[in-house]
């Protein structure tokens, strides 16, 4: 079981390991300050089993756990790809710039740099935060120039949000947009996947297992069952493989060793193009969104 060094190429000179292990969702620790040793131990296991791509964010409050796990794992820091995300705040706006926020995160992570820094949501305004989206992006560019961030990107951005940045003629363009993406949510916002591909932006999929974990009982169930049987894989492995086959990088997570191993074991089989199409077509008959459903910007 191994990802065999499988990577996606980013539009800059960097590469990114093909499947990410998330420290949000079930690990999210709002307002809790003790170290989650279960997360540290699970991360060490995930890294030692072959996950070399860890997805973190300031709002998850899991930076210390990520840092601790990297120290405890057998893998060298430079061989692990670490993502963090700038949280602009919602009810309590973050007045700290991405530059200052990342510096604070690095100290919690006990790292010299992160491989990828994303703006977690586009909800940044001069009135709310004290700076606008383009100024936030400029702050991230400074981090890239100083080597504290290797690649810069965005998350939960619409085409219009990305265009706002691109039109400002940035020195460093966003190379990733991390969005909710699954067989039941193939376009979180209109045209986002097509636009990303045309503009050298890699889509990362969070919530890739939504059809299985939260929207079970939908039209995909029987398709997944028959493909899982054909390839001797689990439904989750079929869904993750479908994400990869559509040119998108899945970010998933699990607290269970067997599932962690199974997520890493999705590169030794291929779905046929007809099977990929079948999942896409049947999946598109239902829309299921877990995150940010109350934000009208995504309607
Ligand atoms: N940028 C953003 O705004 C967001 C980013 N993210 C990132 O993406 C990561 C992954 O998101 P998430 O939605 O959790 O991803 P997934 O859709 O991959 O779901 C993972 C969850 O599925 C459960 N699971 C796996 N297989 C099964 C099964 N067969 N039956 C039932 N449950 C199953 C796991 O639980 P178990 O532990 O029991 O195996 C785990 O909690 C997050 O941790 C975070 O890093 C997530 C949301 C928003
Ligand atoms: O992992 C996450 N869980 C969330 C819940 C609400 C908003 C963002 C997120 C994440 O990024």
Which structural traits does this protein have?
globular; 12 helices; alpha/beta; eight-stranded parallel β-barrel; 299 residues; binds NADPH dihydro-nicotinamide-adenine-dinucleotide phosphate; binds isatin; two-stranded antiparallel ribbon
Summarize the structure.
The protein is an alpha/beta fold and about 300 residues long. It has helices at about 35-50, 65-70, 100-110, 125-130, 135-145, 160-165, 190-200, 210-215, 220-230, 235-245, 255-265, 275-285, and strands spanning about 5-10, 15, 20, 55, 80-85, 115-120, 150-155, 175-180, 200-205, 250. Helix 1 (about 35-50) packs parallel to helix 11 (about 255-265) and helix 2 (about 65-70) crosses helix 3 (about 100-110).
Q: What does this molecule look like?
A:
The protein has helices at 37-49, 63-72, 98-109, 126-129, 133-145, 159-167, 192-198, 210-213, 221-231, 235-245, 257-264, 273-283; strands spanning 7-9, 15-17, 20-22, 53-55, 81-86, 114-119, 149-155, 176-180, 202-206, 249-252. It is an alpha/beta fold. The strands form two sheets. It has an eight-stranded parallel barrel, surrounded by five helices. Strands 1-2 form a two-stranded antiparallel ribbon. Strand 8, helix 7 (192-198) and strand 9 form a beta-alpha-beta unit. Helix 1 (37-49) runs parallel beside helix 11. The N and C termini lie far apart (40 Å). The mean pLDDT is 95. The structure holds NADPH dihydro-nicotinamide-adenine-dinucleotide phosphate and isatin.
């Amino acid at each position: 079981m191994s990802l065999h060094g499988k990577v996606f190429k980013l539009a800059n000179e960097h590469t990114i390991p093909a499947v990410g292990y998330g420290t949000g969702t079930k690990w999210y620790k709002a307002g809790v300050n003790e170290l989650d040793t279960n997360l540290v131990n699970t991360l060490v296991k995930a890294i030692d089993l072959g996950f070399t791509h860890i997805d973190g964010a300031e709002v998850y409050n899991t930076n210390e756990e990520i840092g601790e796990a990297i120290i405890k794992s057998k893998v060298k820091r430079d061989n692990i790809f670490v993502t963090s995300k700038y949280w602009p705040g919602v009810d309590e706006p973050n007045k700290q710039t991405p530059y200052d926020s990342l510096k604070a995160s690095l100290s919690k992570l006990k790292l010299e740099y992160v491989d990828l820094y994303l703006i977690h949501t586009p909800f940044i305004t001069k009135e709310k935060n004290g700076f606008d989206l383009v100024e936030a992006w400029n702050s991230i560019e400074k981090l890239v120039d100083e080597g504290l961030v290797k690649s810069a990107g965005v998350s939960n951005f619409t085409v219009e949000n990305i265009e706002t940045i691109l039109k400002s003629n940035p020195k460093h363009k966003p190379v990733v947009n991390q969005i909710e993406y699954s067989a039941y949510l193939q376009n979180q916002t209109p045209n986002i996947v097509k636009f990303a591909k045309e503009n050298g932006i890699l889509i990362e999929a969070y919530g890739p297992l939504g059809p299985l974990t939260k929207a079970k009982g939908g039209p995909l169930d029987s398709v997944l069952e028959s493909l899982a049987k054909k390839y001797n894989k689990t439904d989750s492995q079929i869904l993750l493989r479908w994400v990869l086959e559509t040119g998108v990088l899945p970010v998933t997570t699990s607290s269970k060793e067997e599932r962690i191993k199974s997520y890493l074991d999705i590169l030794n089989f291929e779905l046929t193009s007809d099977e990929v199409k079948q999942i896409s077509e049947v999946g598109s008959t239902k829309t299921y969104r877990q995150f940010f459903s109350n934000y009208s910007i995504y309607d």
